[in-house]
Amino acid sequence: MARVFVYGTLKKGQPNYKHMINTAKGLARFQGRGRTVEKYPLVIAGKYNIPYMLNIPGTGHHVAGEIYSVDDQMLQFLDEFEGCPDMYQRTLMRIEVVEWEGKGGAGEARAAAEGIVECFVYSTTTYPPEWVGLPYHDSYDSSGKHGLSYVLRESR
């Protein structure tokens, strides 16, 4: 199992969460909530109002999200879904645990107790330079006060 941190449309209550609970795509087990140890710019960009974490460590906010344990099948699905490696790149990042529900071995419990876990995160280095000038968010909600409603793939 791999650990993945999601901060956008794949979180609970967001438009693409349905993929995280679709066992035909693989297994994803919710472990808890967290936020990036380093600050990153989280922007909402493009004509479909997609959330992107720009891979510019030290700029922006500690981005909030959810931590999942996923199997190889789900990780492969997420790579395809996230357009990896062209649109997003899957990289390891340190995530501060805010709330932990995970069940696992001693290693899992120790990592959670220490408050920092390493997770794969889909961030991007392949973005138009003007995105750096967009407003930065510390968390994402598709129906947030930003007024930038996410456009589902099936509606594009």
UniProtKB/TrEMBL annotation:
<keyword id="KW-0808">Transferase</keyword>
<dbReference type="InterPro" id="IPR013024">
    <property type="entry name" value="GGCT-like"/>
</dbReference>
<dbReference type="GO" id="GO:0042219">
    <property type="term" value="P:modified amino acid catabolic process"/>
</dbReference>
<dbReference type="InterPro" id="IPR036568">
    <property type="entry name" value="GGCT-like_sf"/>
</dbReference>
<feature type="active site" description="Proton acceptor">
    <location>
        <position position="82"/>
    </location>
</feature>
<dbReference type="GO" id="GO:0016740">
    <property type="term" value="F:transferase activity"/>
</dbReference>
<comment type="function">
    <text>Catalyzes the formation of 5-oxo-L-proline from L-gamma-glutamyl-L-epsilon-lysine.</text>
</comment>
<keyword id="KW-0456">Lyase</keyword>
<dbReference type="Pfam" id="PF06094">
    <property type="entry name" value="GGACT"/>
</dbReference>
<dbReference type="GO" id="GO:0061929">
    <property type="term" value="F:gamma-glutamylaminecyclotransferase activity"/>
</dbReference>
<dbReference type="GO" id="GO:0005829">
    <property type="term" value="C:cytosol"/>
</dbReference>
<comment type="similarity">
    <text>Belongs to the gamma-glutamylcyclotransferase family.</text>
</comment>
<protein>
    <recommendedName>
        <fullName>Gamma-glutamylaminecyclotransferase</fullName>
        <ecNumber>4.3.2.8</ecNumber>
    </recommendedName>
</protein>
<dbReference type="InterPro" id="IPR009288">
    <property type="entry name" value="AIG2-like_dom"/>
</dbReference>
<dbReference type="InterPro" id="IPR039126">
    <property type="entry name" value="GGACT"/>
</dbReference>
<feature type="domain" description="Gamma-glutamylcyclotransferase AIG2-like">
    <location>
        <begin position="4"/>
        <end position="105"/>
    </location>
</feature>
